[in-house]
Design a protein that fits this description.
Blueprint (H helix, E strand, L loop, with lengths): L6 H4 L7 H8 L3 E5 L6 H6 L2 E5 L11 H4 L6 H11 L8 E5 L3 H4 L1 H9 L11 E4 L7 H21 L7 H26 L7 H11 L4 H17 L9 E7 L5 H8 L3 E7 L19 H11 L10 H14 L4 E7 L3 H16 L4 E6 L6 H14 L1
Parallel strand pairs: 1-2, 1-3, 3-4, 5-6, 5-7, 7-8
The structure holds iron/sulfur cluster.
Iron/sulfur cluster binds next to helix 5, helix 6 and helix 15.
């Protein structure tokens, strides 16, 4: 039985969901954010519901294109398009970090064009988190200050007397449990005789970033039990693929690979492994907030961290062995310079290791499916 119709996975097919409605009915706030370099544990400890902004299902960028030229990331433009159409009006807060120049622009554009547009009367606090692009001790000290300032701004904006260490510790426990459950599900995917498809895993990760984490944890426990009882999915003639690169929040792209003779056995994506590989480890004498910041800053990185390519390559090499990978698909959304650079380096490095690799550019909204399918099929036949 496919998991795609499971109510938990179904949530990923839309933007807003019933858990958000219930949450707001209790006069609690929802804060939208881009990128995984955001201290979710801090938001949750403030009794805010962190909602990861995505453009799932949107095939359009026409309104977004009014304010962002077309040689920018179509994922970001598609999210802006949805926001200008009112799809993100349910947000009670908005948090952006300088993950890349494309998503960073959303800080101004959501303020000027989304939350100040005619007919929109809700006051939505905006927050900005500056994150260094290299990993150094000084950078960590900088980022700690940024997160501490964010904590103060959140307390002021939502009139919270203080986000206590106790609340932060509770939130760390919930989020570490969440990541542990996602890793357990990941293990059932990478094993020989996998229990779920790459597109089902993506849905699980997207839903997980759209609802309260304690609810997600009980649902993930249910799904984990269900998967353990489930027969292995049939992938006999399929090639085991590792998918790497730009944000993927559209199962159609993974289904394109899985309907072309591949099985996406693992990934190195921000709606994937990059989100759950590392836990918050409380350090003696360190505040819970600094431990949260330490995890975010020193965890397995994305290409925005300019001096950390070697560690990313090392992860990919280990995952190729661990998941018994037969080929790597490197993908980037057009104009995504961060993943473009990393993918170009990976292409050479993986070829030297004689690992079949395909490097493709694409638009966010599956514009050129036929071209993509032809290239993917040819690659899978070649392996
Ligand atoms: S895909 Fe690239 S350009 Fe688009 S938001 Fe992610 S990092 Fe930025």
């Amino acid at each position: 039985m496919s998991l795609h119709s499971d109510p938990f996975l179904n949530i990923s097919k839309s933007i807003k969901n019933s858990y958000i409605e219930e949450w707001q009915e209790e006069s609690k706030k929802v804060i939208g954010y881009y990128c995984t370099y955001i201290p979710e544990e801090l938001l949750y400890a403030a009794n805010l519901l962190p909602f990861r902004i995505r453009a799932t299902g949107n095939r359009d960028t026409e309104l977004g294109d009014i304010y962002m030229v077309r040689f920018t990331c179509s994922f970001v433009r598609a999210t802006l398009d949805l926001a200008l159409k009112g799809v993100y009006d349910f947000l009670d807060g908005f948090l952006v970090c300088n993950s890349c120049d494309h998503s960073r622009r959303m800080f101004e554009l959501f303020d000027l064009k989304v939350f100040n547009r005619e007919g929109f009367n809700k006051k939505v606090p905006r927050f900005y988190l500056a994150l260094p692009h290299i990993i150094t001790h000084e950078g960590f000290e900088w980022y700690k200050k940024e997160v501490e300032e964010l904590k103060t701004e959140i307390e002021e904006s939502y009139k919270i007397s203080e986000i206590s260490n106790l609340k932060l510790l509770e939130s760390i426990k919930v989020h570490n449990k969440n990541r542990n459950l996602l890793r357990a599900i990941h293990d059932l995917r990478i094993q020989s005789g996998p229990k779920l498809t790459g597109s089902e895993v993506l849905q699980i990760n997207m839903t997980n970033a759209s609802i309260p984490k304690d609810v997600a944890n009980s649902e993930l426990e249910r799904i984990l039990k269900l998967l353990k009882e489930r027969q292995a999915i049939g992938i006999e003639n399929k090639k085991r693929i590792l998918l790497v690169g730009s944000v993927v929040d559209n199962i159609e792209f993974i289904q394109l690979i899985e309907n072309s003779g591949g099985f996406v056995a693992s990934d190195f994506l921000c709606f994937g492994t990059r989100n759950f590989l590392d836990d918050v480890n409380l350090q003696n004498g360190e505040s819970p907030l600094d431990s949260i910041t330490r995890r975010l800053y020193y965890r397995i990185s994305c290409p925005r961290m300019m001096d950390d390519h070697e560690r990313r390559l090392d992860f990919i090499k280990k995952e190729i062995k661990r998941a018994n990978i037969e080929g790597v698909i490197l993908q980037r959304i057009n104009n995504c310079d961060l993943h473009g650079c990393d993918n170009m380096l990976f292409t050479h490095e993986l070829k030297e290791l004689e690992i079949p690799v395909l490097n493709i550019d694409r638009e966010f909204y599956m514009a050129d499916t036929t071209r993509l399918q032809t290239r993917i099929e040819a690659f899978l036949e070649m392996i």
